[in-house]
Amino acid sequence: MSDSAVFGDGTRAVRAGLPEPVKHEPTLPGPVFAAHYHLPGDPTGPYTYGRDENPTWTLLERAIAELEAPGQDDAETLVFPSGMAAISAVLFSQLRTGDVAVLPNDGYQALPLVREQLEAYGIEVRTAPTADNAQLDVLDGAKLLWIETPSNPGLDVCDIRRLTEAAHARGCIVAVDNTLATPLGQRPLELGADFAVASGTKQLTGHGDLLLGYVVSRDAGLLTAVRRWRKIAGAITGPMEAWLAHRSLATLHLRADRQSANALAVAEALKGRPEVTGLRYPGLPDDPAHKVASQQMRRYGCVVSFSLPTRARADRFLDALRLVDDATSFGGVRSTAERRGRWGGDAVPDGFVRFSAGAEDADDLVADVLRALDESAG
Ligand SMILES: *Cc1c(COP(=O)(O)O)cnc(C)c1O
Questions:
Q1: What would the CATH number be for the domain defined by 3-249?
Q2: Transmembrane ranges (predicted)?
Q3: Reduced 3-state DSSP string for the chain
Q4: Among protein residues, the one whose CA lies closest to atom 7 of ligand 1
Q5: Could you tell me if the CB of 201 is within 6 A of ligand 1?
Q6: Which tens digit of pLDDT belongs to each residue from 154-209?
Q7: 5 has pLDDT over 90
């Protein structure tokens, strides 16, 4: 595994987590469907019962660790059946009644529900915006800091290293939601975080055909509690999903490069349009997040956010797109977009559009977006 440090992103992605070649065996062994394993005598691992371990997870977990923490042999990954299962596993395994947790107030739309649940267990929750490292101001006395950068859907960015140093100085552990960036965009553990957590449902796997989550850490003690939580909650990944996810990782670098180039092209094209306001993409040199993003990110992701003047205009725009599906989620090889306000969970304008650039040809995608803008003007 330590070899992984010397290779580039593409080489690591195509080889991530693969076992040593065995004659007559496939490169990536197929999914193992097993509720239990033959287990004569003392019940020792690794494989005893399907809720605890599965060989298909093991390979995927190694692969994700090689991408999130290349060369850090002490990094371990636990996979979960969704991003929310991974997020809940970290928060509910680490926090106790009376603890203080700091969350972003502009993060993933299910975080307010998580907040309610934490508060129901007597955990104090403070929130602050992602922009301008505002979470720094509410850290005193906190046990856990939750960072989401870039934030979904507003695409604000905070300085992971700076926040982590401030948190650690106060004895506070740090988890970073790395969903938008993917491990090829940003590696939170190298920036000091205790946990990298993500939804693998989005760009990591990139085909819009499965849900997945993961937690990576180099701290065995912290991970023991997360593993115990996975067992208690029974939050386990199907072997088929784990295998599909692993297969998808082989193209992650191709998809990430292409999709971030397409996102930049779409953002550049939108910049010139008078009806577009609040345009955000951390890869745009004049984006307010660009400076911090360029210090900690190697790719800026596939999501572009902007607003059209009204809800009706945004709906007409989405209708007029031919190459972009009106769908939630993001990160897939086919472009998607949605009017985010339709869910009601985010503090965004009515005409706010979250656009996820796929792997189409940039010229085709940009032409489709500009034509849909023109057609929706009426
Ligand atoms: C989608 C998403 C999640 C939740 O992941 P699921 O796989 O849908 O459970 C968490 N965080 C961010 C930033 C997301 O975009």
A1: 3.40.640.10
A2: none
A3: CHHHHCCCHHHHHHHCCCCCCCCCCCCCCCCCCCCECCCCCCCCCCCCECCCCCHHHHHHHHHHHHHHCCCCCCCEEEEECCHHHHHHHHHHHHCCCCCEEEEECCCCCCHHHHHHHHHHCCCEEEEECCHHHHHHHHCCCCCEEEEECCCCCCCCCCCHHHHHHHHHHCCCEEEEECCCCCCCCCCCCCCCCCEEEEECCCCCCCCCCCCCEEEEECCHHHHHHHHHHHHHHCCCCCHHHHHHHHHHHCCHHHHHHHHHHHHHHHHHHHHCCCCCEEEECCCCCCCCCHHHHHHHCCCCCCEEEEECCCHHHHHHHHHHCCCCEECCCCCCCCCEEEEHHHHCCCCCCCCEEEEECCCCCHHHHHHHHHHHHHHCCC
A4: 83
A5: yes
A6: 999 999 999 999 999 999 999 999 999 999 999 999 999 999 999 999 999 999 99
A7: no
Q: How far is the CA of 119 from the centre of ligand 1 (A)?
A: 21
The domain made up of 252-376 is a member of CATH 3.40.50.720: no
Rounded distance from Cα 84 to ligand 1 centre (Å): 6
The full set of domain ranges for the chain reads 3-249, 252-376
Reported confidence tier of residue 1, pLDDT bands at 50, 70, 90: very low
- Ligand 1 atom closest to 201 (CA): 7
83 C-alpha to ligand 1 centroid (Å): 5
Q: Is the pLDDT of residue 253 over 60?
A: yes
Between the CA of 22 and the centroid of ligand 1 the distance, in Å, is 36
pLDDT (tens digit, 9 = 90+) per residue, 124-159? 999 999 999 999 999 999 999 999 999 999 999 999
Question: Is 148 touching ligand 1 by the criterion CB < 6 Å?
Answer: yes
Q: Does residue 321 have its Cβ closer than 6 Å to ligand 1?
A: no
Q: What is the pLDDT of residue 4?
A: 67
